[in-house]
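Weekly sync, protein design subgroup
Attendees: M.S., D.O., the rotation student, P.L. (late)

Item 1: inverse folding check
M.S. brought a backbone from last month's batch and wanted to see whether the design step gives back something sensible before we order anything. D.O. pointed out we never logged the input encoding, so this time it goes straight into the notes. Structure tokens as presented (224 positions):
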């Protein structure tokens, strides 16, 4: 005779795939701004960002324009910036809670693998994806390598990871703060605006303004 799992055991808990944006969601920082500070191009990057927010540039155009301002930075800059990244409160608790229930957690970022990779390892993420900066002879060229992770790329990552983990779409959750997250949020069963801009709040199923990612756990029935 097979014993029935206790209600508190992982077999009774719902498995979710939770996918978060990185900048201003998983972390407090905007990584492109940290890099621009080192390059002395912060004002220019802010101007390009403002143009994108007013619809003059799409995400890929604005990303490439901002990355161009980083040309000449040494590859060693990543080490210093990694030490300045501040992880959002509750991130470790969220990862532990999702994984304890047999679920998966991923991060998809319009930022950069060079800074997301060590953070993902530290937090124990199941999946992560970001853009990759071009480096030649230890120096940033101001270019990018490979496909751009834009709004469509974020949504594709969520669906790809759900299929890989055998988690149905009805148990997918997308968490973000900006317009570039809206397509991913539409693809998920539950969309959460976290520390988000007004347009994203209006689109989301749930709004969380207090910067503590562990607040997602009660929404999923994983903490009382």
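Designed sequence read out in the meeting:
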């Amino acid at each position: 005779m097979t014993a029935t799992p206790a209600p508190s055991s992982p077999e009774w808990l719902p498995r979710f795939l939770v996918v978060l944006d990185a900048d201003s969601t998983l972390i407090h920082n905007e990584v492109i701004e940290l890099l621009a500070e080192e390059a002395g191009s912060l004002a220019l990057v802010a101007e390009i960002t403002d143009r994108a927010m007013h619809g003059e540039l799409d995400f890929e155009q604005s990303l490439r324009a901002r990355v161009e301002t980083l040309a000449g930075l040494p590859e060693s800059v990543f080490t210093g910036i990694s030490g300045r990244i501040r992880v959002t409160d509750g991130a470790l608790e969220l990862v532990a809670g999702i994984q304890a229930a047999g679920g998966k957690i991923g991060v998809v970022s319009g930022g950069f693998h060079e800074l997301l990779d060590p953070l993902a390892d530290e937090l124990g993420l199941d999946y992560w994806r970001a853009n990759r900066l071009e480096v030649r002879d230890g120096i940033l060229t101001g270019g990018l390598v490979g496909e751009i992770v834009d709004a469509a790329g974020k949504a594709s990552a969520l669906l790809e990871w759900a299929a890989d983990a055998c988690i149905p779409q009805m148990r997918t959750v997308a968490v973000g703060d900006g317009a570039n997250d809206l397509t991913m949020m539409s693809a998920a069963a539950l969309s959460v605006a976290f520390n988000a801009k007004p347009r994203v709040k209006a689109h989301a199923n749930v709004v969380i303004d207090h910067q503590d990612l562990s607040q997602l756990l009660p929404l999923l029935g994983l903490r009382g």
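Discussion: The chain is about 40% helix and 20% strand. The CA atoms of residues 1 and 11 lie 17 Å apart.
Action: P.L. to compare against the previous round before Friday.
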